[in-house]
Amino acid sequence: NADELQSVLAHEIGHLRHNDVVVMTVIAFIPMLAYIIAQSMFFSSIFGGMNSKNNSGSYLMLFGLLAFVVYIMAQLFMMSLSRTRESYADSYSASYTKHPEYLASSLVKITASNVGTANAAKDSTIARSFYIVDYFNSDKDIKDIKNHIKEIKDLLPDLDIDRFVQQAKDSKKNVWGLINGAFATHPPAYRRLIDLAKEKAELNGRKEAQN
């Protein structure tokens, strides 16, 4: 579908306009550096420091633990930033095409077509942030979307916002949902559909105001 293709291209152009590739590449350097430092400290404490008389091994181990904490925190920050940039790119696409439903349809199709690819995507956490959907979470996303397929067809044309909002609220109450969401590179597909539905409502409101 040419309209859906245009919406996806507009999403990617949004990333370029916002310099997301540069931003995410620079940010990704922080957890990578912290991980290298943590690993080197751990190995140094095990193979060198523990044999010394001034307890340098204990200090190296402590610095290694601190570096690992920095790595985890930086990773969480990077994932959060990635989700925010994805939302901005979705908004850019909706604004550019004036038809958020085209991107919504594309997201459903792309997510559905990548069910079962989680293992293939697992090895490249940083690279996942550059895709239009997070392939690692496609299985979960499509299960969420299947429960709302009738409503999605209505953004497309009858999206039931209330049910999507309720699902978002329910996921926040679930501990595993919070953990999974914190390490996801993209917002859950159904939340992106909620935002696109709001974009469509705003566009329709502007059209009515102009008329």
Automatic annotation (TrEMBL):
EC number of the protein: 3.4.24.-
Which InterPro entries does the protein's record reference? HtpX_protease (IPR050083), Peptidase_M48 (IPR001915)
Keywords, comma-separated and alphabetical: Cell membrane, Hydrolase, Membrane, Metal-binding, Metalloprotease, Protease, Transmembrane, Transmembrane helix, Zinc
Q: Where is the Peptidase M48 domain?
A: 2-198
Q: Which cofactor does it need?
A: Zn(2+)
Enzyme class label: hydrolase
For this UniProt entry, which segments traverse the membrane?
Answer: 21-47, 59-78
Kindly state a single biological-process term from the GO annotations of this entry: proteolysis
Pfam families noted in UniProt: Peptidase_M48
**MF annotations from Gene Ontology:** metal ion binding; metalloendopeptidase activity
This chain belongs to which protein, by name?
Answer: Peptidase M48
Q: Which organism is it from?
A: mine drainage metagenome
